[in-house]
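Sample pair:
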Amino acid sequence: MLNQIKFLTGLLLLISINIQAQQSDKKSYSFSLKQAIDFAFQNQTDIQNAVLDQKSAQSRANELLGIGLPQISASADITHFTDIPTTFVPAEFFGGEKGSYAPVQFGQPYSSTAGLSASQLLFDGSYLVGVKASRMYADLMRKQVIQTKTEKAALISKAYYNVQVNSERLQMLDANVKRLKKQLDEMQVMYDNGFIEKIDLDRISLAYNNIETEKANADRLIVLAQNLLKFQMGLNVSDELVLTDKLEDVKVVADNNLNQNIDISNRIEMDVLNTTKELLRADLRLKKSSYLPSLAAFGSYSVSASRNDFDIFENKPWFRTSIIGVKLNVPIFDGFQKAAKVNQARFALNKIENQIKTATQGFQLEAQTAKTTLTNALGSLANQEKNRTLAADVARITKIKYQQGVGSSLEVMDAETALKVAETNYYAAMVEAFIAKVDFEKATGTLIK
Protein backbone atom coordinates (compact mmCIF):
# COMPACT_ATOMS: atom_id res chain seq x y z
CA MET A 1 0.00 0.00 0.00
CA LEU A 2 2.84 2.39 0.86
CA ASN A 3 4.49 1.68 -2.51
CA GLN A 4 1.22 2.48 -4.31
CA ILE A 5 0.95 5.80 -2.49
CA LYS A 6 4.55 6.66 -3.44
CA PHE A 7 3.87 5.72 -7.07
CA LEU A 8 0.70 7.86 -7.25
CA THR A 9 2.48 10.78 -5.58
CA GLY A 10 5.32 10.59 -8.11
CA LEU A 11 2.87 10.32 -11.01
CA LEU A 12 0.94 13.39 -9.84
CA LEU A 13 4.21 15.28 -9.46
CA LEU A 14 5.23 14.42 -13.04
CA ILE A 15 1.81 15.47 -14.36
CA SER A 16 2.06 18.75 -12.45
CA ILE A 17 5.55 19.44 -13.84
CA ASN A 18 4.35 18.63 -17.39
CA ILE A 19 1.34 20.97 -17.06
CA GLN A 20 3.53 23.77 -15.74
CA ALA A 21 5.97 23.27 -18.62
CA GLN A 22 3.15 23.43 -21.15
CA GLN A 23 1.76 26.57 -19.55
CA SER A 24 5.18 28.20 -19.59
CA ASP A 25 5.51 27.43 -23.32
CA LYS A 26 2.08 28.89 -24.08
CA LYS A 27 2.19 32.39 -25.58
CA SER A 28 -0.51 35.01 -25.92
CA TYR A 29 -1.01 37.20 -29.00
CA SER A 30 -3.37 40.01 -29.95
CA PHE A 31 -3.60 40.76 -33.67
CA SER A 32 -5.52 42.87 -36.09
CA LEU A 33 -5.95 41.32 -39.52
CA LYS A 34 -2.98 43.27 -40.89
CA GLN A 35 -0.83 42.27 -37.93
CA ALA A 36 -1.85 38.63 -38.36
CA ILE A 37 -0.82 38.73 -42.02
CA ASP A 38 2.48 40.47 -41.20
CA PHE A 39 3.18 37.87 -38.51
CA ALA A 40 2.58 35.05 -41.00
CA PHE A 41 4.95 36.70 -43.49
CA GLN A 42 7.70 36.37 -40.88
CA ASN A 43 6.85 32.98 -39.39
CA GLN A 44 4.93 30.83 -41.90
CA THR A 45 7.17 28.10 -43.33
CA ASP A 46 5.79 28.32 -46.89
CA ILE A 47 6.79 31.97 -47.05
CA GLN A 48 10.12 31.32 -45.35
CA ASN A 49 10.92 28.67 -47.98
CA ALA A 50 9.94 31.04 -50.80
CA VAL A 51 12.28 33.68 -49.33
CA LEU A 52 15.06 31.07 -49.13
CA ASP A 53 14.48 30.27 -52.82
CA GLN A 54 14.81 33.97 -53.58
CA LYS A 55 18.07 34.23 -51.67
CA SER A 56 19.36 31.09 -53.36
CA ALA A 57 18.58 32.57 -56.79
CA GLN A 58 20.40 35.79 -55.86
CA SER A 59 23.41 33.76 -54.72
CA ARG A 60 23.30 31.87 -58.02
CA ALA A 61 23.36 35.20 -59.88
CA ASN A 62 26.37 36.29 -57.83
CA GLU A 63 28.08 32.97 -58.57
CA LEU A 64 27.60 33.39 -62.32
CA LEU A 65 28.78 37.00 -62.15
CA GLY A 66 32.00 35.79 -60.53
CA ILE A 67 32.91 33.81 -63.66
CA GLY A 68 33.68 37.09 -65.46
CA LEU A 69 35.90 38.41 -62.67
CA PRO A 70 39.65 37.61 -62.42
CA GLN A 71 40.31 34.04 -61.33
CA ILE A 72 43.44 33.89 -59.16
CA SER A 73 44.91 30.88 -57.42
CA ALA A 74 48.13 30.05 -55.60
CA SER A 75 49.83 26.69 -55.07
CA ALA A 76 52.86 25.30 -53.29
CA ASP A 77 54.32 21.86 -52.77
CA ILE A 78 57.30 20.07 -51.30
CA THR A 79 58.30 16.67 -52.71
CA HIS A 80 60.65 14.03 -51.41
CA PHE A 81 61.61 11.29 -53.84
CA THR A 82 62.30 8.25 -51.71
CA ASP A 83 63.48 6.66 -54.93
CA ILE A 84 64.71 9.02 -57.64
CA PRO A 85 63.08 8.19 -60.98
CA THR A 86 65.19 6.10 -63.33
CA THR A 87 65.70 7.04 -66.97
CA PHE A 88 67.30 4.97 -69.75
CA VAL A 89 69.88 6.64 -72.02
CA PRO A 90 72.06 5.15 -74.82
CA ALA A 91 74.92 3.20 -73.23
CA GLU A 92 77.39 4.42 -75.83
CA PHE A 93 77.36 7.83 -74.05
CA PHE A 94 79.29 6.15 -71.28
CA GLY A 95 81.48 3.95 -73.50
CA GLY A 96 79.06 1.06 -73.60
CA GLU A 97 77.90 -1.06 -76.47
CA LYS A 98 76.14 0.81 -79.27
CA GLY A 99 72.40 0.22 -79.41
CA SER A 100 72.10 -0.66 -75.75
CA TYR A 101 70.72 1.49 -72.93
CA ALA A 102 71.96 2.21 -69.47
CA PRO A 103 69.75 3.13 -66.47
CA VAL A 104 70.58 6.48 -64.87
CA GLN A 105 68.95 8.65 -62.20
CA PHE A 106 68.59 12.38 -62.74
CA GLY A 107 67.48 14.87 -60.14
CA GLN A 108 67.72 15.40 -56.43
CA PRO A 109 65.56 13.85 -53.70
CA TYR A 110 64.05 17.14 -52.43
CA SER A 111 62.20 19.64 -54.60
CA SER A 112 59.70 22.44 -54.05
CA THR A 113 57.50 24.62 -56.25
CA ALA A 114 55.43 27.73 -55.46
CA GLY A 115 53.35 29.59 -58.01
CA LEU A 116 50.61 32.06 -58.75
CA SER A 117 48.22 31.81 -61.72
CA ALA A 118 45.48 34.10 -62.99
CA SER A 119 42.97 34.20 -65.83
CA GLN A 120 40.49 36.77 -67.09
CA LEU A 121 37.54 36.22 -69.39
CA LEU A 122 37.73 38.88 -72.09
CA PHE A 123 34.70 38.01 -74.18
CA ASP A 124 32.00 35.35 -74.05
CA GLY A 125 28.56 36.02 -75.43
CA SER A 126 27.02 33.23 -73.34
CA TYR A 127 28.43 34.77 -70.17
CA LEU A 128 26.94 38.21 -70.84
CA VAL A 129 23.50 36.80 -71.59
CA GLY A 130 23.76 34.36 -68.69
CA VAL A 131 24.45 37.12 -66.16
CA LYS A 132 21.38 39.03 -67.31
CA ALA A 133 19.27 35.87 -67.22
CA SER A 134 20.42 35.02 -63.70
CA ARG A 135 19.32 38.45 -62.50
CA MET A 136 15.95 37.96 -64.15
CA TYR A 137 15.66 34.58 -62.43
CA ALA A 138 16.36 36.22 -59.06
CA ASP A 139 13.64 38.77 -59.85
CA LEU A 140 11.28 35.91 -60.73
CA MET A 141 11.93 34.31 -57.33
CA ARG A 142 11.22 37.66 -55.66
CA LYS A 143 7.87 37.88 -57.42
CA GLN A 144 7.07 34.31 -56.47
CA VAL A 145 7.61 35.31 -52.84
CA ILE A 146 4.95 38.00 -53.36
CA GLN A 147 2.67 35.42 -54.98
CA THR A 148 3.10 33.07 -52.02
CA LYS A 149 2.38 35.95 -49.64
CA THR A 150 -0.77 36.85 -51.59
CA GLU A 151 -2.08 33.30 -51.39
CA LYS A 152 -1.28 33.10 -47.69
CA ALA A 153 -2.88 36.51 -47.03
CA ALA A 154 -6.09 35.27 -48.68
CA LEU A 155 -6.20 32.16 -46.49
CA ILE A 156 -5.48 34.15 -43.32
CA SER A 157 -8.09 36.79 -44.17
CA LYS A 158 -10.78 34.15 -44.70
CA ALA A 159 -9.84 32.36 -41.48
CA TYR A 160 -9.72 35.67 -39.54
CA TYR A 161 -13.16 36.75 -40.78
CA ASN A 162 -14.54 33.27 -40.07
CA VAL A 163 -13.43 33.50 -36.44
CA GLN A 164 -14.89 37.00 -36.14
CA VAL A 165 -18.28 36.02 -37.55
CA ASN A 166 -18.49 32.86 -35.47
CA SER A 167 -17.55 34.84 -32.36
CA GLU A 168 -20.39 37.26 -33.00
CA ARG A 169 -22.73 34.35 -33.69
CA LEU A 170 -21.67 32.78 -30.40
CA GLN A 171 -22.56 36.01 -28.59
CA MET A 172 -25.96 35.90 -30.26
CA LEU A 173 -26.45 32.30 -29.15
CA ASP A 174 -25.47 33.24 -25.60
CA ALA A 175 -28.11 35.97 -25.64
CA ASN A 176 -30.72 33.55 -27.03
CA VAL A 177 -29.90 30.95 -24.37
CA LYS A 178 -30.39 33.53 -21.63
CA ARG A 179 -33.59 34.81 -23.23
CA LEU A 180 -35.10 31.32 -23.63
CA LYS A 181 -33.99 30.38 -20.12
CA LYS A 182 -35.86 33.40 -18.81
CA GLN A 183 -38.95 32.43 -20.81
CA LEU A 184 -38.66 28.85 -19.58
CA ASP A 185 -38.48 30.01 -15.95
CA GLU A 186 -41.49 32.30 -16.45
CA MET A 187 -43.56 29.56 -18.07
CA GLN A 188 -42.53 27.11 -15.36
CA VAL A 189 -44.00 29.51 -12.81
CA MET A 190 -47.15 29.89 -14.91
CA TYR A 191 -47.46 26.12 -15.24
CA ASP A 192 -46.97 25.62 -11.51
CA ASN A 193 -49.79 28.08 -10.92
CA GLY A 194 -52.06 26.38 -13.46
CA PHE A 195 -52.12 29.18 -16.02
CA ILE A 196 -50.72 27.11 -18.94
CA GLU A 197 -50.80 23.51 -20.05
CA LYS A 198 -47.82 21.16 -19.89
CA ILE A 199 -47.55 21.08 -23.68
CA ASP A 200 -46.78 24.78 -23.62
CA LEU A 201 -43.99 24.19 -21.11
CA ASP A 202 -42.67 21.25 -23.15
CA ARG A 203 -42.46 23.38 -26.28
CA ILE A 204 -40.32 26.05 -24.66
CA SER A 205 -38.23 23.34 -22.98
CA LEU A 206 -37.62 21.77 -26.40
CA ALA A 207 -36.55 25.12 -27.84
CA TYR A 208 -34.24 25.73 -24.91
CA ASN A 209 -32.59 22.31 -25.23
CA ASN A 210 -32.08 22.87 -28.96
CA ILE A 211 -30.46 26.27 -28.49
CA GLU A 212 -28.16 24.90 -25.79
CA THR A 213 -27.05 22.11 -28.14
CA GLU A 214 -26.48 24.62 -30.93
CA LYS A 215 -24.38 26.78 -28.61
CA ALA A 216 -22.27 23.80 -27.52
CA ASN A 217 -21.63 22.97 -31.17
CA ALA A 218 -20.74 26.59 -31.87
CA ASP A 219 -18.26 26.56 -28.96
CA ARG A 220 -16.44 23.61 -30.50
CA LEU A 221 -16.56 25.04 -34.04
CA ILE A 222 -15.01 28.33 -32.99
CA VAL A 223 -12.10 26.44 -31.41
CA LEU A 224 -11.55 24.70 -34.75
CA ALA A 225 -11.77 28.03 -36.58
CA GLN A 226 -9.21 29.57 -34.23
CA ASN A 227 -6.87 26.60 -34.64
CA LEU A 228 -7.10 26.90 -38.43
CA LEU A 229 -6.19 30.59 -38.19
CA LYS A 230 -3.25 29.78 -35.92
CA PHE A 231 -2.03 27.16 -38.38
CA GLN A 232 -2.23 29.57 -41.30
CA MET A 233 -0.27 32.16 -39.29
CA GLY A 234 2.41 29.75 -38.12
CA LEU A 235 1.35 29.79 -34.45
CA ASN A 236 1.18 26.81 -32.13
CA VAL A 237 -2.31 25.47 -31.52
CA SER A 238 -1.75 25.87 -27.76
CA ASP A 239 -1.05 29.62 -28.10
CA GLU A 240 -3.76 32.08 -27.10
CA LEU A 241 -4.99 34.40 -29.86
CA VAL A 242 -7.15 37.50 -29.47
CA LEU A 243 -8.53 39.27 -32.55
CA THR A 244 -8.55 43.03 -32.09
CA ASP A 245 -10.46 44.09 -35.22
CA LYS A 246 -14.14 44.82 -34.75
CA LEU A 247 -16.48 43.21 -37.25
CA GLU A 248 -18.63 46.31 -37.48
CA ASP A 249 -15.60 48.37 -38.53
CA VAL A 250 -14.80 46.14 -41.51
CA LYS A 251 -16.09 47.33 -44.88
CA VAL A 252 -17.01 44.37 -47.02
CA VAL A 253 -16.28 46.38 -50.16
CA ALA A 254 -14.73 49.80 -50.71
CA ASP A 255 -16.90 52.54 -52.18
CA ASN A 256 -17.38 52.27 -55.97
CA ASN A 257 -15.02 49.28 -56.20
CA LEU A 258 -17.66 47.20 -57.92
CA ASN A 259 -18.43 49.99 -60.40
CA GLN A 260 -14.86 50.32 -61.65
CA ASN A 261 -13.46 48.48 -64.65
CA ILE A 262 -11.56 45.35 -63.68
CA ASP A 263 -7.81 45.54 -64.27
CA ILE A 264 -5.95 42.24 -63.95
CA SER A 265 -2.55 43.81 -64.64
CA ASN A 266 -2.16 44.28 -60.87
CA ARG A 267 -2.16 40.52 -60.30
CA ILE A 268 1.21 39.17 -59.24
CA GLU A 269 0.54 36.05 -61.33
CA MET A 270 0.71 38.20 -64.48
CA ASP A 271 4.07 39.60 -63.32
CA VAL A 272 5.35 36.08 -62.73
CA LEU A 273 4.24 34.91 -66.18
CA ASN A 274 5.69 37.96 -67.95
CA THR A 275 8.99 37.61 -66.10
CA THR A 276 9.07 33.91 -67.01
CA LYS A 277 8.55 34.90 -70.65
CA GLU A 278 11.48 37.34 -70.51
CA LEU A 279 13.59 34.67 -68.85
CA LEU A 280 12.84 32.20 -71.65
CA ARG A 281 13.59 34.89 -74.21
CA ALA A 282 16.96 35.39 -72.53
CA ASP A 283 17.49 31.62 -72.64
CA LEU A 284 16.91 31.73 -76.42
CA ARG A 285 19.54 34.46 -76.74
CA LEU A 286 21.85 32.37 -74.57
CA LYS A 287 21.52 29.38 -76.88
CA LYS A 288 22.16 31.56 -79.92
CA SER A 289 25.21 33.17 -78.31
CA SER A 290 26.89 29.77 -78.07
CA TYR A 291 27.81 30.20 -81.76
CA LEU A 292 30.06 33.13 -80.85
CA PRO A 293 33.78 32.69 -80.06
CA SER A 294 35.18 33.27 -76.58
CA LEU A 295 38.44 34.95 -75.63
CA ALA A 296 40.35 34.70 -72.35
CA ALA A 297 43.73 35.88 -71.05
CA PHE A 298 45.87 33.87 -68.69
CA GLY A 299 49.23 34.06 -66.94
CA SER A 300 51.27 32.30 -64.29
CA TYR A 301 54.44 32.84 -62.29
CA SER A 302 56.25 30.17 -60.28
CA VAL A 303 59.56 29.42 -58.59
CA SER A 304 61.12 26.01 -57.98
CA ALA A 305 64.07 24.55 -56.15
CA SER A 306 65.79 21.16 -55.95
CA ARG A 307 68.07 19.97 -53.14
CA ASN A 308 70.03 16.92 -52.08
CA ASP A 309 69.17 17.64 -48.45
CA PHE A 310 66.04 19.03 -46.82
CA ASP A 311 67.21 22.64 -46.82
CA ILE A 312 64.57 24.00 -49.16
CA PHE A 313 64.12 27.25 -47.27
CA GLU A 314 67.79 28.08 -46.84
CA ASN A 315 69.42 30.86 -48.83
CA LYS A 316 70.03 28.91 -52.02
CA PRO A 317 68.93 29.59 -55.61
CA TRP A 318 65.28 29.28 -56.69
CA PHE A 319 64.47 29.21 -60.39
CA ARG A 320 61.67 31.27 -61.93
CA THR A 321 59.11 30.40 -64.61
CA SER A 322 56.50 32.83 -66.00
CA ILE A 323 53.86 32.55 -68.73
CA ILE A 324 51.33 34.97 -70.25
CA GLY A 325 48.95 34.34 -73.12
CA VAL A 326 45.49 34.52 -74.60
CA LYS A 327 43.16 31.74 -75.65
CA LEU A 328 40.61 31.99 -78.42
CA ASN A 329 37.93 29.33 -78.71
CA VAL A 330 35.95 29.29 -81.97
CA PRO A 331 33.10 26.76 -82.28
CA ILE A 332 32.99 25.27 -85.76
CA PHE A 333 30.77 22.19 -85.86
CA ASP A 334 29.03 20.31 -83.07
CA GLY A 335 26.77 17.96 -84.98
CA PHE A 336 23.86 20.47 -84.98
CA GLN A 337 23.53 20.30 -81.17
CA LYS A 338 23.36 24.09 -80.81
CA ALA A 339 20.66 24.33 -83.48
CA ALA A 340 18.58 21.75 -81.61
CA LYS A 341 18.98 23.66 -78.35
CA VAL A 342 17.96 26.92 -80.06
CA ASN A 343 14.80 25.25 -81.38
CA GLN A 344 13.96 23.90 -77.92
CA ALA A 345 14.33 27.37 -76.41
CA ARG A 346 12.15 28.86 -79.16
CA PHE A 347 9.43 26.27 -78.56
CA ALA A 348 9.50 26.98 -74.80
CA LEU A 349 9.07 30.69 -75.53
CA ASN A 350 6.12 30.01 -77.83
CA LYS A 351 4.59 27.81 -75.14
CA ILE A 352 4.77 30.48 -72.42
CA GLU A 353 3.21 33.00 -74.82
CA ASN A 354 0.26 30.64 -75.25
CA GLN A 355 0.07 30.16 -71.47
CA ILE A 356 0.00 33.94 -70.93
CA LYS A 357 -2.84 34.27 -73.43
CA THR A 358 -4.86 31.53 -71.71
CA ALA A 359 -4.02 32.85 -68.22
CA THR A 360 -5.13 36.37 -69.20
CA GLN A 361 -8.51 35.06 -70.30
CA GLY A 362 -8.75 32.94 -67.15
CA PHE A 363 -7.87 35.85 -64.85
CA GLN A 364 -10.46 38.06 -66.53
CA LEU A 365 -13.10 35.37 -66.11
CA GLU A 366 -12.04 34.84 -62.48
CA ALA A 367 -12.27 38.56 -61.77
CA GLN A 368 -15.70 38.86 -63.39
CA THR A 369 -16.89 35.79 -61.48
CA ALA A 370 -15.54 37.20 -58.21
CA LYS A 371 -17.27 40.52 -58.91
CA THR A 372 -20.59 38.81 -59.58
CA THR A 373 -20.21 36.56 -56.54
CA LEU A 374 -19.45 39.54 -54.29
CA THR A 375 -22.39 41.51 -55.69
CA ASN A 376 -24.72 38.57 -55.04
CA ALA A 377 -23.24 38.02 -51.57
CA LEU A 378 -23.79 41.67 -50.64
CA GLY A 379 -27.39 41.49 -51.87
CA SER A 380 -27.98 38.27 -49.93
CA LEU A 381 -26.42 39.75 -46.78
CA ALA A 382 -28.64 42.83 -46.98
CA ASN A 383 -31.72 40.68 -47.50
CA GLN A 384 -30.85 38.31 -44.64
CA GLU A 385 -30.25 41.29 -42.36
CA LYS A 386 -33.76 42.53 -43.13
CA ASN A 387 -35.18 39.05 -42.54
CA ARG A 388 -33.35 38.86 -39.23
CA THR A 389 -34.84 42.18 -38.12
CA LEU A 390 -38.34 41.16 -39.20
CA ALA A 391 -38.06 37.78 -37.50
CA ALA A 392 -36.91 39.45 -34.28
CA ASP A 393 -39.90 41.82 -34.39
CA VAL A 394 -42.29 38.95 -35.05
CA ALA A 395 -40.87 36.95 -32.14
CA ARG A 396 -41.11 39.95 -29.82
CA ILE A 397 -44.71 40.76 -30.76
CA THR A 398 -45.77 37.10 -30.63
CA LYS A 399 -44.38 36.79 -27.12
CA ILE A 400 -46.26 39.93 -26.01
CA LYS A 401 -49.51 38.59 -27.47
CA TYR A 402 -48.99 35.29 -25.71
CA GLN A 403 -48.33 37.00 -22.38
CA GLN A 404 -51.52 39.02 -22.86
CA GLY A 405 -53.48 35.85 -23.53
CA VAL A 406 -54.31 36.56 -27.19
CA GLY A 407 -51.74 34.19 -28.69
CA SER A 408 -50.74 30.55 -28.42
CA SER A 409 -47.50 28.92 -27.36
CA LEU A 410 -47.34 27.29 -30.78
CA GLU A 411 -47.18 30.72 -32.40
CA VAL A 412 -44.39 31.68 -29.99
CA MET A 413 -42.38 28.57 -30.90
CA ASP A 414 -42.93 29.10 -34.62
CA ALA A 415 -41.68 32.67 -34.24
CA GLU A 416 -38.64 31.52 -32.24
CA THR A 417 -37.84 28.89 -34.88
CA ALA A 418 -38.15 31.46 -37.67
CA LEU A 419 -35.87 33.83 -35.74
CA LYS A 420 -33.24 31.13 -35.26
CA VAL A 421 -33.34 30.27 -38.98
CA ALA A 422 -33.09 33.96 -39.90
CA GLU A 423 -30.08 34.46 -37.61
CA THR A 424 -28.37 31.33 -38.97
CA ASN A 425 -28.94 32.52 -42.54
CA TYR A 426 -27.67 35.99 -41.66
CA TYR A 427 -24.36 34.78 -40.28
CA ALA A 428 -23.93 32.31 -43.15
CA ALA A 429 -24.49 35.20 -45.58
CA MET A 430 -21.96 37.27 -43.66
CA VAL A 431 -19.30 34.56 -43.97
CA GLU A 432 -20.02 34.25 -47.69
CA ALA A 433 -19.75 38.02 -48.11
CA PHE A 434 -16.35 38.19 -46.43
CA ILE A 435 -15.04 35.22 -48.42
CA ALA A 436 -16.31 36.85 -51.62
CA LYS A 437 -14.59 40.09 -50.57
CA VAL A 438 -11.24 38.31 -50.20
CA ASP A 439 -11.67 36.44 -53.49
CA PHE A 440 -12.52 39.70 -55.30
CA GLU A 441 -9.48 41.50 -53.88
CA LYS A 442 -7.24 38.57 -54.81
CA ALA A 443 -8.72 38.36 -58.31
CA THR A 444 -8.12 42.07 -58.92
CA GLY A 445 -4.65 42.13 -57.38
CA THR A 446 -5.55 44.48 -54.52
CA LEU A 447 -5.32 42.09 -51.57
CA ILE A 448 -1.71 43.07 -50.76
CA LYS A 449 -1.04 46.75 -51.27
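The first helix runs from residue 2 to 25.
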